[in-house]
Amino acid sequence: LAHYNWGIILQQQNNFDEALPHFRSAVQNDPQNAESRNMLGNALMRAGKFDEGAEAIMTAVKLDPRLPQAQLSAGNLMLQRKQLPEAIQYFTEAVRLKPDFTDAHYALGNAIAMSGKIDQALPHFAEVVRLNPNVADGYLPLGLALQQTGNLDSALRAYREGLRVNPDFFPIMIRLGWILATHPESKWRDGVEAMRLATRAVELSHENSAEALDLLAAAYAETGKYAEAAGTAQKAVSLAQSAKQPAQAGQIEARLQLYKQERSYRQ
Asked: Is the dihedral of CA 7, 8, 12, 16 positive or negative?
């Protein structure tokens, strides 16, 4: 028990290498303990020892099929192996065993979304937010799923709620900003709010994010500032090229040509 607890403490401190020998000792002391075996498996996976980690995780599932954490680990293992149906089965079992298991709902939602069934993933993302309303990360997949299923008004509410929880949550700032700056329907656009989000995103990234500068350029264009849009887009192109992201650079370059013609970009 002492080794197991020390392993947990060290892992929570991101000292994964130091946690590993403690989990090994915990398993040696109690080979039938599924929790220790599962934690050992996850520690081994983080250390790059995939075969040994996979064996430990699947042994944990066999030792205690009713341990939801082991079912979650097995699902993650199946995802790494690109065995999506099997991953969904394990994640589903984890949720069945522990209905308030946030990580399992998140994983199951992502796996179902990967299978193309966004509408079936949506309830799991909603449950993540219901269980942890004060964690901004959950609002991003919820908003994306709502957006992809045509519920844009609800998606915007999810994004804004995520920013209420964490006003500087970069991924949501970018996603919401693009809708407000570039949506084809004017009723969804708000250039002023898009400019505020984009400006803050650029600040947070210390002007070193092509993604943030790309959004700022689009927001400039939406507010009629085409010269500023073109100059900002050119900076974004240069950053993308320096980062060896030719596809991103090409997309921004296409938008740059629009701004030079005093035209706004529409998604």
From this structure: positive
pLDDT of residue 6: 77
| 107's tokens | 């994983």
d(CA 142, CA 161): 11
pLDDT in tens, 153-192: 999 999 999 999 999 999 999 999 999 999 999 999 999 9
Structure tokens at 173: 């700032």
Q: In 230-244, which positions are buried (b, 16+ CB within 10 angstroms) versus exposed (e)?
A: bbbbbbbbebbbeee
Global pTM reads 0.90
pLDDT of amino acid 1: 55
Contact 88, 115 (CB under 8 A): yes
The alpha helices in the chain, defined as continuous H runs, are 2-12, 16-29, 34-46, 50-63, 68-80, 84-97, 102-114, 118-131, 139-148, 152-165, 170-182, 191-204, 210-222, 226-242, 246-260
pLDDT tens for 22-76 read 888 888 889 999 999 998 999 999 888 999 999 999 999 999 999 999 999 999 9
Give the pair of three-digit tokens for residue 187: 């009723």
| Long-range CB contacts for residues 16-25, cutoff 8 Å, separation at least 24 | 16/43, 16/46, 16/47, 17/47, 19/43, 20/44, 20/47
Question: If 0-12 CB within 10 Å is exposed, 13-18 middle and 19+ buried, where does residue 121 land?
Answer: buried
125 close to 102: Cβ distance less than 8 angstroms: no
